[in-house]
Amino acid sequence: MEKRICILYTGGTIGMVPSEKGYVPSSGAFLDLLRAIPDLYWADMPRWDVVEFDPLLDSSDITVREWNQIGRAIAARYDDYDGFVVLHGTDTMAYSASAISFMLENLSKPVIFTGSQIPLGQIRSDGRDNIISSLLIAASGQVHEVCIYFNGVLLRGNRSTKRSSDQFEAFESPNDAPLAHAGIQIEYKKRVLRPASSEPFRLQPFKELPIGVIKIFPGIQFDYFESLMTDKLKGVVLETFGAGNIPGSAQNALLPIIDRAYKNGTIITVCSQCSQGAVSLGTYAASSALRRVGAVNGRDMRRTDRIRNSRRSIASAGISVSEDLVEFRARRCEIKSKSMLSGGFADRKHTKRLASVSFSRSARKACTQSRRSPFCQKSTGFFDSSAPAEAQLRRELLRDAVIFAERGPAREARRRWAGAEDK
């Protein structure tokens, strides 16, 4: 049966035309150019339709509102198409692909982000090949997740980052292998491809939440950030040196700020400024203090992933607190990270504390269900309750839940959840 693919045209370089102010997104001209590509009508190509956003955007103008718009556009047409291709500007494509991967839960169809470095209407444009290959990948039946296709390489959406503003090889995934290479044939790496979800598809929109990014540099004056750490700030991504290190001379100024933010319920996530490798809090003395004040280990995720994951964790995962029951309804954030699978499990203190909490069967299932793939089911959450009497319990369980879910393979997690229920 002939496959049907929906192309979502959000804007970006691929559809831009010259103007007095420089390149700007264009509607009519791009659609005419797209329909004029003869390869799109070959017998091996899927049927395709175009949904054009209004207004068209430069990708630097993308916000949470546009992410929700993309997510809702896909959800509204999910049953009508076999896959989706999102034409998007390159500047924030990695952010958007990561956000949409967390927003669209239980995917069984591909969502391929692509674009170009040169507009489709200009000589030597890379947009033609990117569109054609993305359509073929979306119709292949091999991919069941959010990806970025660019210059012959298919990358996992929430593990990608933009590496170049003037090379056709614009994106990379430093800590994750490509999912496919497009040469004479499109060769899929089946051992790392995710299987289709058997769970019902679900859209989880994002909320507008204040999240900050602090990048550590030599000589940084942390006193200037103190006024930002209020109870209104819901998440902070702290970009540190190496494996999670911060300057020893600045710890006296930084740690009280982080501790106060943590007590306010702000999630502090630590990631590395290095393009490869992972954060390992406690490996060096310079990073041990962050763990003591409740910072969350971001492992090998990049800034684009951590910002989106922080926003998703706070906005969408619900944990309600009552006198008799704490229910951990974690949403699954599926992130490939071999370091998570080999990094050990939560220590006895965390396990004992979790064992004293009653979890519903549906909550445990959401946290621990395995997909028989080389992915760790990473679950994070945030308590909606703001009652003062529950603040300490909220903070402690949040930290334990993150540590518990980050460090444990699904099989070990199921065993320990079962033990917690018995107790």
Question: Can you walk through the features of this model?
Answer:
Helix content is 31%, strand content 22%. The protein has 423 residues and is of the alpha/beta class. An 8-stranded mixed β-sheet has the order 4-1-5-7-8-9-12-13, with helices on both faces. Strands 15-16-17-18 form a 4-stranded parallel β-sheet, sandwiched between helices. It has a 3-stranded mixed β-sheet with strand order 20-19-23, with helices on both faces. The protein is elongated, with a radius of gyration of 22 Å. The N and C termini lie far apart (53 Å). The C terminus is likely disordered.
Characteristic terms for this protein:
31% helix, alpha/beta, 22% strand, disordered C terminus, four-stranded parallel beta sheet, 12 helices, eight-stranded mixed beta sheet, 423 residues
Distance between the termini: 53 Å
For the biggest sheet, the summary is: 8 strands, mixed
- Order of strands across the biggest sheet? 4-1-5-7-8-9-12-13
Q: What best-fitting shape do the alpha-carbon axes yield?
A: elongated
Number of separate strands:
23
Low-confidence stretches: 310-397, 399-423
Oligomer: single chain
The assigned structural class equals alpha/beta
Overall average pLDDT? 74
> Which percent range fits the helix content?
25-40%
Q: How much of the polypeptide forms β-strand, as a percent range?
A: 15-25%
Number of helices: 12
